[in-house]
C-alpha cells in the first residue's frame, strides 16, 4: 500500500524505512519487532506531547489561588534537578527525542512553578537566583565542543566528562524518588492534596508507566530504565493519595470561628446585663 508523500515522509522519519516498508507497504502484521517499535514511538510522541502541557493545570491552579499551599517546594527543587541532569545526559548520549523530549517541557514548567511558589511567598529575589542556578547547571552539563586535531581526528570535549555525567544520571534515581517523598508526606499530614493538580499527578503516573515500555524498546540503558521503574512506583502512591483525598480540602477550623463568635456574643450580652 502506498501512502501520499506528505504522510509517508513523517511516518518514515518516526518509525524508519524498514518498519514503514514492512508494516505499511507490505502489510506484514506478523513483524513483531516493528510493531513493538511503532507502538513505542507512538507512546513516546504521546508522552512528549503530554509533557508539553502536563504541568499547565498546576500552574493555573497556583495562579488562580495566588498560593501554592499543599505543594511541596523541596519536591519541585529535587525533581527539577533530576530533570536538568537527565536532559543533559540524553542530549549527550544522542538518544532519540521520543524517549526524553517531555523532560525539556517538564523542566521548563517546573521552573515556572518554582518561580510562582517563591513569588507568592514574597521571595522574588530568591526566584531569580533559583532559576539562574538551574539554567547555568543545564548549560554546564550539556555543553560540548568539537575541535580537529592535526591528523584530522575530531575530538569532542566537555566541561563535565561523560563518565561523570553517567554518575550524575545514576544519582537522579534516588533524587527522583526523594522528590516524591516530601509531597507524599505533605499530603498525608494535611489529609489533603491542597493545590496539587489531579491532572498532573495522574498524567505523571501514566507517563512514567509508558516510559518504562519505550525505554525497554528503544534505549539499552539500565540506569534510565531503573529510574523509570522506581519513579512509576512513587507516582502510583501519589495517584492513590489523590484518589483517597479527592473530596478532602484543607480543613480550616470553622468550629473555632464559631466558638469565637459565640464568646463575643456572650460578652456583649454580659455587658448589656451589667
Automatic annotation (TrEMBL):
This is Mannose-P-dolichol utilization defect 1 protein homolog. Residues 253-274 are annotated as: Disordered. Residues 262-274 have a biased composition (Basic and acidic residues). It comes from the Eukaryota. The chain crosses the membrane at residues 71-91, 222-240. It comes from Podila verticillata NRRL 6337. One of its GO terms (cellular component) is membrane. It is a multi-pass membrane protein. It is found in: Membrane. Its main location: membrane. Belongs to the MPDU1 (TC 2.A.43.3) family. Pfam families: PQ-loop. Keywords: Membrane, Repeat, Transmembrane, Transmembrane helix, Transport.
Amino acid at each position: 500500500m502506498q501512502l501520499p508523500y506528505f504522510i509517508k515522509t513523517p511516518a518514515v522519519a518516526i518509525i524508519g524505512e524498514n518498519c514503514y516498508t514492512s508494516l505499511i507497504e507490505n502489510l506484514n502484521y506478523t513483524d513483531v519487532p516493528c510493531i513493538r517499535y511503532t507502538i513505542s514511538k507512538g507512546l513516546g510522541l504521546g508522552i512528549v506531547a503530554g509533557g508539553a502541557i502536563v504541568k499547565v493545570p498546576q500552574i493555573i491552579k497556583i495562579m488562580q489561588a495566588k498560593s501554592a499551599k499543599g505543594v511541596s517546594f523541596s519536591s519541585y527543587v529535587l525533581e527539577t534537578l533530576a530533570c536538568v541532569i537527565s536532559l543533559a545526559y540524553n542530549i549527550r548520549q544522542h538518544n532519540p527525542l521520543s524517549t526524553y523530549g517531555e523532560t525539556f517541557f517538564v523542566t521548563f514548567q517546573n521552573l515556572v512553578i518554582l518561580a510562582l511558589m517563591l513569588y507568592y511567598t514574597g521571595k522574588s529575589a530568591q526566584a531569580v537566583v533559583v532559576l539562574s542556578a538551574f539554567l547555568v547547571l543545564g548549560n554546564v552539563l550539556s555543553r560540548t565542543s568539537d575541535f580537529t586535531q592535526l591528523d584530522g581526528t575530531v575530538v569532542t570535549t566537555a566541561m563535565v566528562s561523560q563518565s561523570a555525567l553517567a554518575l550524575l544520571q545514576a544519582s537522579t534515581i534516588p533524587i527522583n524518588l526523594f522528590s516524591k517523598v516530601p509531597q507524599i508526606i505533605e499530603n498525608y499530614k494535611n489529609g489533603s492534596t491542597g493545590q496539587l493538580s489531579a491532572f498532573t499527578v495522574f498524567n505523571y503516573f501514566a507517563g512514567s508507566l509508558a516510559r518504562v515500555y519505550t525505554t525497554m524498546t528503544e534505549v539499552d540503558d539500565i540506569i534510565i530504565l531503573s529510574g523509570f521503574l522506581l519513579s512509576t512506583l512513587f507516582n502510583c502512591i501519589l495517584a492513590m493519595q489523590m484518589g483517597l483525598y479527592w473530596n478532602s480540602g484543607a480543613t480550616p477550623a470553622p468550629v473555632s470561628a464559631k466558638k469565637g463568635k459565640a464568646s463575643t456574643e456572650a460578652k456583649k450580652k454580659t455587658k448589656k446585663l451589667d
